[in-house]
Amino acid sequence: MSAHSLSTFRMSVPHIGRQMRRAALAAAVFAVAVPARAHAQPLPDLVLNVTDTPDPVPATGLVTFGVAITNQGLGTATGVTYQMIVPADTRYQGFTAGTGASCAGMTIGQLGPGTVTCSHPQLIPDATAMFSLLLRMNVQGTITVASSASSTEADAVPADNAVNNTTTVIAGADFSVTLSAPSTLASGSTFGYALSVTNAGPDAATALRVQFPWKAASLRCRVTPPLPTARLHFSAVAPSSARGGVPGCAPTRA
């Protein structure tokens, strides 16, 4: 072997050693990485769906939010949590939930904004947790309710864990009618009924009509729409009576 060849051989040994170390290191990394992937726990995939019924709804009306959380992943989800952000101009009116589930965070009748949190112990793959929450819509307009779902484990597809529901609230009146009459009467006497119409709002009642049935006839009265918190009083006299009357009302055959 020549001197030149010996020099080349001596220079090549360290180079070969580095390549072997790199190959050994790669093999070690591969040996560690493969078992880690093989034994990784499957993840849950929570999918949140929320419906609002009815929509549209009159102001002061109740809306039921039906909540369904389904685990479409391969792993079990534990500590499942649902959150609803109750907006301003609404009132929380309670919830219903399945076995093992519960909701807390606001009291019945509490005005928003606020947060209601519902929990469920666990969801195995393909299982569904269901809740129903009630909100009263106080004012006319568009109300947006934000919801989200989560679990203790990481979610395989976080994008389907949150939804926004938009409810249209139309004009609405909340009116009531009370009726009173004498408790005792003398035979053959004339008597009358007193009716009271009250609108608790929040909007004025339009085209309001009060109908008061009799045995063979009825009184149909068109009245001025009462504004919110306004009260109307008028008397209805029996059709058989020759005296009295109701302004704007007349007995007609049913």
Notes on the structure:
With 254 residues, the protein is mostly beta strands. The protein has 2 domains: 46-170, ntegrin, alpha v. Chain A, domain 4 (Immunoglobulin-like, Sandwich), CATH 2.60.40; 175-182 and 190-253, no CATH class. Helices cover 14% and strands 46% of the residues. The strands form 4 sheets. A 6-stranded mixed beta sheet has the order 2-10-9-4-7-6, with no helix packed on it. Strands 1-3-8-5 form a 4-stranded antiparallel beta sheet, with no helix packed on it. Strands 11-12-15 form a 3-stranded antiparallel beta sheet, with no helix packed on it. The model is unreliable at 5-13, 28-36, 215-219 and 229-254 (pLDDT under 50).
Q: According to CATH, what is the class of the largest domain?
A: Mainly Beta
What structural category characterises the helix and strand content?
Answer: mainly beta
Largest sheet, if any? 6 strands, mixed
Strand content: over 45%
Give the end-to-end Cα distance, rounded to a whole number of Å: 129 Å
Query: What are the low-pLDDT stretches, counting only 5+ consecutive residues below 50?
Result: 5-13, 28-36, 215-219, 229-254
What's the helical proportion of residues?
10-25%
Order of helices and strands: HEEEEEEEEEEEEEEEE
What is the multimeric organization of the chains shown?
single chain
Specify Rg, calculated over alpha carbons.
37 Å
